[in-house]
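#struct-help
A.M.: can someone run this one for me? Single chain, 253 residues.
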Amino acid sequence: MRVRTLLASLAVATVVIGSGPAFAADPKVAPGGNFDLSVWQLQEPVGSPGSPTTISSSRLQGANGYQDSYFYTDTRDGAMTFWAPEKGVTTPNSNYARSELREMNRSGSAADWSLSGTHRMNATLRVVSVTSNVCVGQIHLGSGGSSTKPLLELYYRSSGEIVLGTENSPSGGQTLHTVGHVSVGKTWTYTIGVSGGHTIDLTVNGSTTHYAIPSSFDPYKQYFKAGSYNQSSSDSTTKGARVAFYGLTVSHS
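D.P.: on it. Structure tokens below:
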């Protein structure tokens, strides 16, 4: 059941495990100089078929950390920018290329957290350009079964529509919910997360909606993803989705 409310403050003790400034970013350093990338791993749309290149958190960190044409600091405003062309190397379970961060633990192991508790990913971003549709944030299934589906994906369409896709079950099927509208190139904010083990919480520009998590997801653990996961493919390396982030924070409690 979908319930719309105003965003209320949540008085809980949280441990912030990833951060990125929403202002005063240095445009002269790599993304790791402006954002705490110690809890992220990068996947890029290059590599061998079915096996995209991944960049470890240790290589991403610091002012001289990793950057290239798919993941870089915008020299005009310091934004952490992701570029995913329509033609690129994809994972075995997708037809679409991505330049996207995958949540990790500070120890270097892959994040894999239970639905119980409260988990949040906060972002400030703008979609610089998009051919048709791009996923800018996910909660993805981790261990607990054989499914490779997401729990949810947050999409931005070229029309300016912001759409949440909630997975119907680990076997597949997605229900779409229109949750906002922002013109291409304009900055906006989102928070995606789960609370109490059974509720998805989504906030877009201060407006919050809630969605029930089907019990079929109970065996699975989860992790966050953020960046540019393009949702269209072709033979073009110049068409695609470019997404700029000005803030990125993950917390668990």
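A.M.: thanks! The mean pLDDT is 92.
D.P.: also worth noting: The chain has two helices and 17 strands.
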